[in-house]
Amino acid sequence: MSNPWIAIGALAVVALAIPISMMVVSSLLRPSVPEQGKTATYESGEVPTGSSQKIKFNIQYYMVALLFVVFDIETVLIFPWTVIYRDAVSAVGMTRALLPMVAFIGILAVGLGWAWRNGAVRWVRSSRATKGADTYE
Amino acid sequence: MAVAAEYYLLLSAAIFCIGLFGVLTRRNALIFLMSVELMLNAANINFVAFSLQHGNLTGQVFALFGMAIAAAEVAVGIGIILVLYRNFSDVDVTKATTMRW
Amino acid sequence: MVDPTWLATAPALAFGAAALLLLLADSVDPDTTNTTVLGGIAVAGSLGSLAAAVYLLYGGVGIPTGEGGTGPAVLFGGQLVVDQMALFFMTIVASVTALVTLASMDYVREHAYQAEFYSLVLLSATGMSLLAAANSLATGFVAFELVSLPSYALVAFLKKNRGSVEAGLKYFLIGAVSSSVLAYGISLVYAATGVMRFDAVATAIQSGTVQTVVDGSVQAQSSGASVQMSILGVGIVMIIGGLAFKMAAVPFHFWAPEAYEGAPAPISAFLSSASKAAGFVIAFRAFAVAFPIGALAETGGAVDWFVVFQVLAIATMFIGNFAAATQETVKRMLAYSSVGHAGYVLIGLAALTGTGDGMSLSMSAGMAHLLVYGFMNTGAFLFIALAEYWGVGRRFEDYNGLGKQAPVACAAMTVFLFSLAGLPIGGGFFSKFYLFQATLNVSAWSLAAALVINSALSLFYYSRVVKAMWIEEPTGERTIDSYPTGLYTAIVAAAVITVLLIPGFGYVSEVAFRAVELL
Amino acid sequence: MLVETLLLVTLLGAGIVMLAPDRVAGKLAAGISVIPVALTTYMYYVFLTDYNGAGNALLSPGEVAFGTQVPWLNLGEYTVQYYVGLDGVSMPLLALTTILTTLAIVSAWTPIDERQSQFYGLMLLMEVSLIGVFTALDFFLWFVFWEGVLIPMYFLIGVWGGPRRKYAAIKFFVYTNVASLVMFAGLFALVFATDVTTLSLPAMATAFRTATGLPTIAGYSLATISFVLMFIGFAVKVPVFPLHTWLPDAHVEAPTPVSVMLAGVLLKMGTYALLRFNFTMLEATARQLAVPLAIVGVVSVIYGAMLALAQRDLKRIVAYSSISSMGYVILGLVAFTPLGMGGATFQMVAHGLISGLMFMTVGVIYNTTHTRMVGDMSGLADRMPWTAGIFVAAAFGYMGLPLMAGFAAEFFIFQGAFNAATLGASAPVLTSLAMFGIVIVAGYLLWAMQRTLFGSFTLETDYEVGRAAFHDVAPLAVLLLLVIALGVAPDLSLDMIQHAVAPLTGGGA
Amino acid sequence: MAPVSAPLPETLAELAGLDPNSVPVLVLMSLIGAAFIGSLMLTQTALVIWAKRKITAAFTDRIAINRVGPAGLLIIPADAVRLLSKELIVPDGVDRPAWDLAPLVIASSALLGFAVIPMGNGIHLADPEVGLAYVFATASIASVGLVMAGYASNNKYSFLGGLRAVAQNVAYEIPLILTGASVVIFAGSLQMSEIVAAQSQTLVGPIPSWYAFVNPFAFALFMIANLAEVGRNPFDIPEAPTEIVAGYQTEYSSVYFVLIYLGEFIHIFLGGAIIATIFLGGPAGPVLPGIVWFLIKIWGVFLFTQWARSAVPRVRIDQLIEIGWKGMLVLSLANLLLTAVIVGVIA
Questions:
Q1: Contacting subunits of E (3+ beta carbon pairs below 8 A)
Q2: Number of domains in chain E
Q3: What ipTM, to 2 d.p.?
């Protein structure tokens, strides 16, 4: 059969074309009334202070990101196995097809357990947040 | 509609050189890291391309490993860069000169 | 044949199991600092690995069944091969790891992240053991990274210590670059030959046609395409570059002094002994099996790489030793000297004759030197660890008169240093002579001269430490109140083995020789 | 098995002493070091009775006394053995070693007052290596011991030495190590050239002596080049002018017992190695180069004596004069006559005893007066008569008074060298020049003695000078007796020596 | 297995009587098919937005839009015109290229996924062998757009919103993919058509062997993870209106706002489509034509999300992370192994 990626590319073109055309249309329609103060970023009516692009944010976002990188890659390694698993079972028997993956996921689980116990996935809340949160819990 | 292997080779070489250039010129550790990833992925391009060329899966499997290793490398690298930032409050690789370089 | 076959990788498995066990222990009680348990697990794991390696080594794994052995254990369609050479290096790695973990028990006692420390060490050791058995560029690369990644973290382990972090960073940056260079080199070799298993690559080079591996057996590619020698050559050079990093050989040695100086001293010992050995084993195997110099020379086109290695060896020897002679701090001196030793071992690859006895001679000389070096250098660095534990300074003068306060440790250190210098009070003398002989065997006079000159030079800077320890008078007051058991045990053990390697060198050299012959 | 026992016992003793507490270390070491003495005496006796006719260990290895030979290890194509044994040359030197060590240890009780256990431990360790050097018949084994001597010596000088000890120790260490390297290079050039694969001394000897068609480099045969290299290597140990400069420093800085060992035994290692390697393995070359070698020997005789003249320090005097007496040994060796070579070997033993005696005496004097300068003292005789007496005796022994060992040795040497075929016409000249050296030393020693011992008592460094302790004088006495004994009955060792060197000198004593 | 039906471009080529193997023809036909699918999805989405307002109103017992046209249906074009003709306010200090690109990425990434979804009646643009992997990939591009928007618009609320969005997406991506993998174990292929075909038998009696019935546990997991992926209650913290105004889209107005809003709903729709395809047998169903069944299933999933949005309270970020990493991840790993064991036993 023909190469499916042609069609996919076509859809990509369309998927880009639609929003862009909308932008164009809107740029033709919309008025432009430049005015002082309109362009201030929204901070609940206060005068904006500082830039949001330089603020330091919670390190735990990094932790989660690192964890994700690791586990996402593991899924990359799992997928080929899932695809051939059925044939493998019929070819070499269940244990030989399954055990390696069990070991793999087992090691993964050890790592996850370690990260879990060492608080890599525990979201430490600031005291203020905790105070607020207690009322909900 | 197969592309000749030489073009893949050229592509990967180009990417590798870009990465190398970044490694040699950039002083920001994060950009350094990205450049290294670029180099690794250049290798992956070769693997996938030539596994298609040679018609065996070895290369693709290696590409998977390559990705996994690259990810692990990033994880370790980010960690090190974080402690670097804590100690030197900067991610400039040339700033850290407690010892002679 | 070991039954089941995968048991042949027991040395690696022991490491891995111990590492996972440590993680589990840490998961059970995350903020434990119970060094006895954690360190105990680590030491037990390493000793188990050592026992397994030695048992298999003398159980004749890898020796053909015709000669009373049980033949090499081949796993995963030839991706891993456990033979004499692999076991030889597994033995080195295991013994060094045992010493290091034992010594670390005192070094990290106050530390918060002990379990992580030990498991990282053990994981790295796992990688080394696997690397020793890797019979394919793919498994080689993966194991190589498994060695490197934990060691990056280990070097930067002292998070509060700027030196340690900086060392970690530099080690990581250079390591990352060189591993990507290695990966690219591998990709080029694959592009040229279509295979990654060493023997298959060799077949491709000899036959000059692209090969492929069909369930374990090498056969010519159906298309019958021919090997692009130019691509292959570039690939080989890049692989050399990537491996030179782990061997800490010029020109990829820059990280070594930094990393060794900044890292916690047991880790410096670990890296400079075991990690280096790991770097060499893959190089030995790859260049002995995958890129046979004879075939390369015939088919032409590709580099004949042992010239490259000769240049590397000489450059490494001289740069390492001369830099070491100019150092002011002991640790850094040792770091540079270990670069110099990498140069010595490179002779194993530089003094090759195509195949046969010449190859066995030079390579086994390198292997023997690595083993002896494993003990004496580890011991020396562990002594530095002891000094750091005592808060002794880093410069030579700070060691003045140490011999009065800690005679045993200093005696051991003296043994290490003189043995490193090649005086016949330690195995270092024989291994160096063995290398010397290997160079003369191919009448590579330049290598021989470099070896002799550098040995003579090294005696000078090694004896500076000895002089400081025994002869100089103590400057300022230094109080040594505690004598850490673990460190002492490790150091003394290393010293005893170093000395015993004089009478025992015969076994080492014979096993090594046999191992290379069987490749 | 006796040799192994000897080595093991001494090694064990060294370990024990190392661990022993400081105050008992001295006595303990002395006690332990008696065992080797007893063993060697027994071996000596057995040798005299059973093996006296045994030939040279290298040339007729069949008759080696107390031999053991087991394979040790294979370095590539080379097989290294554990191979020890004794012949007429090494037996007396072995005896000398053990005896001198014991006496030196005893004489160390007074001067050594810090880190005793380490000191005596190192002394015994050095004894192990020395025993090994004189018994080993395999090159690697020999080389291990040869280098093994340096390390204890380095520490002994460096730790317990005098004010400039660091300099002296380093100088000694560097000199001797570089020397070994040179020697190593020279020897292995030959080994690779003659592709001998078993590295035992006899095997090498046969290989080198029968080697033909050696490559020539720059017109010189490889044999000559290696000979020169090895000669240089050993000459540093001997020492021979101009490679002697480490010796005076080492002697002056080393504590007395150490300089006893240094002068008494370590210098003999050099001549022993010369005899074994250069003059046995490369006999032909040695014969060709006899005249220049003899000249070197004579020069160091005269030169040593001249330098001795210029000294004020008793120790330096002895040191330099020992340079000159080692010159005699060279002269005797190159003569290649039974008397010459035998005398030379005998001179090793004799000089070992006498110089040890001298150094000990000086040491005793120094311990009480805390000075060694000739000018600083006079008239010691009436304060310490025993010491003085022995000093006089020793000095006479040194200048070769009859009935003393020195006389016998030097007499044989001159007699052997005077009409040595190898030296040809120049033999008489050189010999008489060498004799002239004695006269200088003799005169100078007499003068020095007269200044220090006799006349009215004065002492610059005003210390209370009394009789030396018994355990200081006893070793002196023992040594003196030995010297006299050997002087009266030189055949005690000369006989076996003659038999041992006979194969070199064309048979027949 | 052969695909259930030839892909759309070839069918179109057949209809137009052109050679379906020449590349130019295929390109043309692909464009046509793509345009068709794109417009189909857009209309659906427009309806969905209308429906959303109605449903929410119903849940909160209000009467929603009912003035413009029958049942207020004409509000859709009205809104479109209204929003497109609004002034585009560019706040101070935005990171311009990123700020402009974000809406584009968000809107178009979601559309991309539909390329490989078989919608029955041959409405199936492409059928690559790695369909499932592809669709997961496209579905996760959106989070890039979200973080771009959050970072670029120089507003603390937006920034937090973007970070939360990423944290949430990455936390639930892995359970999502692993659960999908458990389906692959059954189907033994990543090709969408084969996954659909594998569900065509009947399980017991009238119940078809849809994976939702074969492995309801995986289905449940997938639904929950999907909720988080599309950012609907209880996982709508990225734009939690009561906490951080509107999250990453706070500073967007006019057409950009439209695009982001549209993108979200297309994403919801894509999620529904994935679920319908890999768990609900794709277009399979009695009587009605496949495309209708397919849309019905998607709407069903959509209704579920709307119900959740109105009925389930929002979780806090810490709860979100813990549910994701400690609950979902472990469960999905367990589910994977369990599925493997079962398949191994029956195979």
A1: A
A2: 1
A3: 0.81
